[in-house]
Design goal:
Distance between the termini: 124 Å
Number of strands: 8
Strand content: 5-15%
Number of helices: 20
Shape: flat
Length: 540
């Protein structure tokens, strides 16, 4: 290779490297990392959710604590140690025996707790479903107990190494050995707590309660406690109505996976920089491939009023441009895709856990309809909260204001510019994917079908509009038809039909939310009439 060719190759490599470095800094600029708190929160949740993080932290604490206490022992007055009644004051042989016993005991107990955990996971996988395993793996008390055992083991080994003969300048680290004894006692108590905690953790009611609490937390994350109409003020409404007519570019995900999160601030900044609107069609939890169209980027027309800001405020000018390579790189950082469904702020995922428990409870191998009823009741509680709250808006805006703007320039620019449009599932979608899924598997179980009918009545107390009322009526009709087609005895089908008809009449009645619903079967009504007639005859 000639010197000229080597220079050209070096120049091309340098140019390419500088270009890649410039793109890297542009990609990870402060504009793109506007969702940095959310990203750090996701990272922290992933660390806490992993089974190794807390035990590893406990091991590091034990490794750091051992030399610290040994150093304190070197400068501590030994006469003061002897005055402490519970302190260790033995010789080096006794210290070695104690530390060896503690290290061996806690390591053996750690193996026992790990074996118990594996057995519980195996049982939970068969009874509740493999997707519920994460709830057991991310159980903080279990991780902390295991971490305390192996942390004590690591601490004991390092202290054992620091025990010397009396003929050496420093002898037995008495405070360190005393602390190891205290930790051994605490580990014994933790073992008792671990057994008691695992007994409660494998109960179906406890698992359902945990899934319900997680769903309620996600609902409060997305839904507002009161109606918020801030997004409806000073908005370019013609953008909402007309952006579908702009030039559209399909958006593809960078790779296949489950859509776990959308970083709205980063996506708003991206749409602002390219002068358009990003519409995401896929909802959280949906599986997409790298060939799926998950949305569109709508580029503003050249004569759009928003683009005319450059005549007044050049630093706020919106110059529409088509998506390029940097756009797709930045878009890949605006969403989070996972190869498997993981715990996130997705409401459907949390509700789906309770649905899966109910469906498995209705399987012939388990046949536990009472657990399915408990799941229906927990789902009803979560859905009633959603019906009373204000759903999140699908429209996201940014306000192009600056400190140097004058009242004249502010008056010429809109208060909010449409940037991102997302898909928000309706309450009917959540009802169909949770209670509706249970209905399809419980079509031959009268207990669960009655619980579903009662759930529609309970949800009626929380409804706030007519659309929700029609959704409940539609679901009651499906419950009635499922029982009529699948219940073996016509008496059971008639009983369910009567309850559904009374429930439908109650929901359609005026002021039903202020009255109590009580279902009375035809048989109970007949018995009541007979008793009343008999009572009248006795009085006569």
């Amino acid at each position: 290779m000639t010197k000229h060719a080597e220079d050209n190759l070096f120049k091309r490599l340098s140019t390419s490297s500088l270009k890649r470095l410039r793109q890297f800094f542009q990609l990870w600029s402060l504009k793109t990392l506007t969702n940095l708190p959310d990203r750090l929160t996701n990272l922290w949740q992933q660390l806490i959710g992993s089974y190794w993080f807390i035990p590893t932290a406990c091991v590091l604490v034990g490794i750091l604590l051992a030399p610290i206490l040994v150093t304190i022992d070197e400068h501590f007055d030994r006469d003061m140690v002897r005055e402490i009644t519970f302190a260790f004051t033995g010789d080096d042989d006794a210290a070695r025996a104690i530390m060896t016993t503690i290290a061996g005991a806690v390591l053996g107990v750690a193996g026992t707790t790990f074996s118990i955990t594996i057995a519980v996971l195996s049982m939970a996988s068969s009874q509740f479903g493999p997707r519920l395993l994460r709830n057991f793996l991310t159980d903080t008390p279990n991780q902390f107990v295991l971490g305390a055992f192996i942390g004590t083991f690591s601490y004991s080994l390092l202290v054992l190494k620091a025990i010397h003969k009396y003929d050496v300048g420093f002898g037995v680290p008495q405070l360190s050995v005393t602390f190891a004894i205290i930790m051994a006692i605490i580990c014994a108590l933790l073992l008792v707590y671990f057994v008691q905690h695992m007994v409660h953790a494998i109960q179906a009611s406890h698992v359902i309660e945990g899934a319900s609490n997680e769903a309620i937390k996600n609902i409060h994350y997305w839904y507002s406690d009161r109606c918020d109409i801030e997004h409806q003020r000073n908005i370019e409404h013609h953008d909402i109505e007309q952006f579908h007519h702009w030039s559209a570019t399909p958006i593809y995900p960078p790779y296949s996976g489950y859509l776990q999160q959308i970083y709205f601030e980063s996506l708003i900044t991206l749409s602002q920089d390219y002068g358009g609107v990003v519409e995401i069609k896929s909802s959280l939890g949906h599986f997409v491939t790298d060939k799926n169209v998950i949305g569109y980027f709508y580029q503003r027309p050249a004569d759009h009023p928003t683009n005319l800001q450059k005549t007044k405020t050049p630093h706020l000018a919106l110059v529409p441009r088509s998506p390029d390579g940097l756009f797709w790189q930045r878009f890949a950082g605006c969403i989070r895709l996972e190869q498997r469904l993981t715990q996130s702020n997705d409401i459907a995922y949390s509700l789906g856990q309770m649905t899966e428990i109910a469906v498995r409870a209705l399987s012939p191998g388990i046949n536990d309809p009472k657990t399915a009823v408990n799941c229906v009741q927990s789902l009803t509680s979560c859905l009633s909260i959603m019906m009373r709250c204000q759903p999140p808006t699908p429209y996201h805006f940014y306000k192009p204001l600056d400190e140097t703007d004058t009242p004249d320039t502010i008056s010429h620019q809109p208060s909010a510019i449409l940037a991102v449009v997302t898909r928000i599932p309706k309450i009917s979608d959540f009802i169909d994917s949770s209670l509706g899924e249970i209905r399809r598997y419980a079509a031959a179980d009268l207990m669960v079908l009655k619980a579903l009918c009662q759930a529609m009545i309970d949800l009626n107390y929380a409804r706030v509009n007519e659309a929700q009322q029609q959704t409940l009526i539609h679901e009651i009709k499906l419950i009635e038809r499922a029982g009529a087609d699948n219940l073996n005895y016509h008496q059971l089908a008639d009983d369910l039909t009567a309850m559904c008809q009374q429930a439908e009449k109650f929901i359609m009645s005026e002021n039903a939310q202020h009255h109590y619903f009580h279902y009375v079967s035809d048989f109970d009504a007949h018995i009541r009439q007979a008793l009343q007639a008999q009572s009248k005859q006795v009085r006569a």
